[in-house]
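FHF complex subunit HOOK interacting protein 2B: structure, please.
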Amino acid sequence: MLSRLGALLQEAVGAREPSIDLLEAFVEHWKGITNYYIESTDENTPAKKTDIPWRLKQMLDILVYEEKQQAAAGETGPCLEYLLQHKILETLCTLGKAEYPPGMRQQVLQFFSKVLAQVQHPLLHYLNVHRPVQKLLRLGGTVPGSLTEKEEVQFTTVLCSKIQQDPALLTYILEGKKTIGRKASREATACLREAASVRDKDRPHSKAPDSGTCGAWASNTQLPAETQEPDGAIGESSLITTLIGLCKSKKGRVALKARENLLLLVTVASQAATTYLVQSSPCCPAIVEHLCQLYQSLPSSLDPADIAALEGISWRLPSAPSDEASFPGKEALAAFLGWFDYCDHLITEAHTVVSDALAKAVAEKLFVEILQPQLLHVSEQSVLTSTALLTVMLRQLRSPALLREAVAFLLGMDQQPAAPEDSPRTLCAHLIRHCDHLSDEISIATLRLFEELLQKPHEQIVRSLILCYLEGRPYVARGSPEPESYEDTLDLEEDPYFTDSFLDSGFQPSAKPPPAPATNPDGKTAVTEIVNSFLCLVPEEAKTSAFLEETGYDTYVHDAYGLFQECSSRVTPWGWPLAPPPLDPHEPEQPFFEGPFLQMLFDRMSRILEQPYSLNLQVTSVLSRLALFPHPLIHEYLLDPYTNLAPGCRSLFSVLVRVIGDLMQRIQRVPQFPGKLLLVRRQLMGQVPGEQLDHQTFLQGVVVLEEFCKELAAIAFVKFPPQSPHLHLSKPGEGHV
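Here you go.
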């Protein structure tokens, strides 16, 4: 760091010669720079081919060496005082703005960065330092592809590091709106007159400036028109805008470093500094404005399947993976998702003040002002694309503050349970209706949205969609004796959904119904009884998995175990009870409504034999996600077939029973039913070519129904293992565990 100057100083001391006068050398180099503008007539010679870079390097070395010499005394050296009092940084900033000679801005940025980084004395508090810093920032970051992007990002790195060390500096750097607007030519004239006029042996406090040579330079040098600022102009606060501009750079390293710098800025620990950042700078609006611009640049014709399939996008690697198939709009989608991931990361890491403000800005500008009208639009393509984009955003979302805003946006702030006759007033109500849309594509896309939402660690999601309707257990019959046998719980003869023709069709469960369900000491239905109930539900003539070499139920148990462990760890902080509250037998029965979400799912499930295969898969996937939640009311209502339902109530099991009844009637009308059903299963597994068959939708629905019952049995098993935590089971025979 001492360079040749330090070596010369050591030699001078060793030879007992008079030491070099540091200030004299410093002023000499500065005069060499100013004299260039007086003597040079070639306006095309690049700055790097002049002696300006060398002289700036010598000035930096002198400042660093002087500081080390003055360290013991703890005083500011005369060279640094000269730099400050003679506004050298102001003058350099003006020369950089004039970009004369060509490339001068690059040299100025490098000098500023090195001085601020290598000089340990606090500088940014001085007006003659932070004011030119503000002006220099305003020169860059606004034009993509600037030739000085590398130097600009290095400059902002130094500034953000200094602010991280001393948050009080934030107000100095961001005071751009308070800077005095003056014509650049006046600033250059005044500054250079003061700097270039000092004689060879001037000291900071000694002689008055000589205006001769500087006046000649001022009169002979014409700054470009673009450097002129009108009197009274108000500059924008520009560290933020410079960083945002650099984040848009096509150069990956520059963009990444700029994002890291902005992240450093929003994570300062000072409450006062972050409050200033939120209230007195364009930080949050600028970040969110870029996010909205990227969203609005997406093609309206994006395929929801392409949106869902694009994975691996992060703010550190915002470009789409090259090994994935290309599709129209892929790069634009990757850019948007990369910046959304960056916003989410900023909200996660930032100080609480910045985090809350940025999350609210994203919710207001992107969710409410842009997404909501698209989700409620009459155009099916608009609804489909916006729903798919919102789903992938939820999938990427990690920050608690932004999740809180997303939940409030989707589910609303009103937590009162909806009534059956309520018309859709909230966005959530409209989205639930979209799950039962005439367009199967919209239904599937919206069901995926809810499935993604159910995997987020926010208790209000489950409470608003399901639990608020189950609290108090209004679905359980009051004051009636417990059924003596499993057959009593079905009570098919009194069920208005079943007719004599169904009972005459010969419907019987695939195995003899078990006797009265066994219970554990805590009064819960034994898990083996629940598992067998679901496994026995589909009649033997409608099962096909036994004819194929599949792991079957055991595979579902393995998968369900992993999903249940993940779900349990997510909900542990919510403090859910282990058992449902006891019922008061004397309490009058309350009207029960399962809520619009479960109502929609049950309605969809009741039509499983009539719906497309892909739609059935999505409906059962959402129901499985719900069944995994370790809440006693959810388990009782969705997974316990022996729950004594109140009159007029339905549960998941009762809906499945009715579907089985419909199945048994339809089987009679399908010739060669077993063979066709087995063929369809093989087609779905890819074992045979897919050819169109009669009753194909119905047959595919039967396959999904069988698999769904096995999945529910596996979920019930892993939630309440019979004796041992080990989940190894032998393959069930005759429909039993």
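Notes: Residues 8-19, 176-235, 482-516, 724-737 have pLDDT under 50 and may be disordered.
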